[in-house]
Amino acid sequence: MIIEEDAHIVNSLAINAKCKIQLTLESESDLEELKYYFSEHNNKYYIVGEGTNLVLPEYFDGIIIKTKFKNIIEDNANKLLKVGAGYNWNELVKYCLSKSIYGFENLVDIPGSVGAAPIQNIGAYGSEVSSLIESIDCYCLKNFRKVNLKNSECNFIYRNSSLKNSDYLIYNINFITNKEKIISTNYETITKFIKKNSIIINNPIDLSNVISKIRSQALPDPKLINNVGSFFKNPIVEFNSINFNIHSKEKLILWNHDNSKVKVGAARLIELIKGDLSLHKNVSLYNKHCLVLVTNGKASQEDILNFASEIQELVLTTFNINLEIEPNIIY
Ligand SMILES: Cc1cc2nc3c(=O)[nH]c(=O)nc-3n(C[C@H](O)[C@H](O)[C@H](O)COP(=O)(O)OP(=O)(O)OC[C@H]3O[C@@H](n4cnc5c(N)ncnc54)[C@H](O)[C@@H]3O)c2cc1C
């Protein structure tokens, strides 16, 4: 285990964040040692992956826990792939593409680690990671015991799961490798792109290449531009509760959700109100995608949350829609 005091916490918003103590677990046996640190530091802790979905404070007065487990084991008998939490998500997608394991292709180029993927049930272009998970090996930080959670125990829904804000440290994920050999190209952005560019998709690699191109045109690379991807979730609301007095229904992006509810494209809502936003010094909207907030590397958590609140207030007064923040705010 690597133990660092007053350590910098890596994060893709480039917030200058430090913590009292950072523990980097290098092997499974390090899990057993965690309890000794907990009693010394009042049990305040936060688990961090690659830091691409965090809005951190300048100082975290507790323990930051990271895992470096990068094992990848194919269990052909049970048609499973056991992957360590510290493995990079996109490297896993590439691994699966190279082995003709279907189902990962729509989730190409999502930044971050394998261990974080189930937390908000990462999803993109019509797929969610929950459809690929058999079970998750966790270490409970309350009773310091290992537990294997089956997919059905994780309560996966759109951008959420019961693992979020739980006491479970994920150290392995068991992925299914026998998904039906069908590629999913139904998502509207994909169909439009394929048609416009006269592309024929024959296999998961072709599809992942198309999605990579679409993503690179809309989303900033966090290694070059400080961001956490979408800052707000697409809200799911009663259709009748939306205020169309200022902007007509046709201007919004609406997907049917159930009988009376619709999922609303949050990027379009922000696009329609962005002219009324005040100028903030260290944080702004990404010029190619209104759902992404970018910083100049000098922004604090407060700067970012102030800007986000202004957006939320304007969207609420204009459309009567509450925008929920997607990344994790740590206090
Ligand atoms: C440019 C960009 C594009 C993005 N696109 C998408 C997208 O298309 N779809 C999507 O869903 N997300 C997207 N995201 C968000 C981000 O990629 C995911 O949330 C990702 O899973 C975060 O991984 P991470 O390792 O950086 O986690 P972190 O940001 O470090 O942590 C995220 C959460 O996971 C928890 N966590 C991390 N590791 C563990 C562990 N081992 N055990 C228990 N809890 C853990 C943390 O406590 C925290 O709650 C995007 C982000 C960026 C910057």
Spell out the blueprint of helices and strands.
Elements: E1 2-8, E2 18-25, H1 34-40, E3 45-47, E4 54-55, E5 59-67, E6 72-75, E7 80-84, H2 89-98, E8 123-124, E9 127-128, E10 133-140, E11 145-150, E12 168-176, H3 188-196, H4 204-218, E13 236-238, E14 254-256, E15 261-264, H5 266-273, E16 283-286, E17 289-295, H6 301-319, E18 328-329
Bound molecules: flavin-adenine dinucleotide.
**Biggest sheet record:** 5 strands, antiparallel
Low-confidence stretches: none
Structural class: alpha+beta
CATH class of the largest domain: Alpha Beta
Which fold name is given in CATH as the topology of the largest domain?
Uridine Diphospho-n-acetylenolpyruvylglucosamine Reductase, domain 3
Give the count of helical stretches.
Answer: 6
- The rounded distance between the terminal residues' Cα atoms is 25 Å
Please tell me the total number of domains.
3
The distinct ligands, each listed once, are: flavin-adenine dinucleotide
How many strands appear in the DSSP assignment?
18
Helix content: 10-25%
Lateral strand order in the biggest sheet: 6-7-12-10-11
Strand residue content: 25-35%
Order of helices and strands: EEHEEEEEHEEEEEHHEEEHEEHE
In round numbers, the mean pLDDT is 96
Radius of gyration from the CA trace? 21 Å
Q: Based on CA inertia axes, which overall geometry fits?
A: globular
CATH architecture annotation of the largest domain: 2-Layer Sandwich
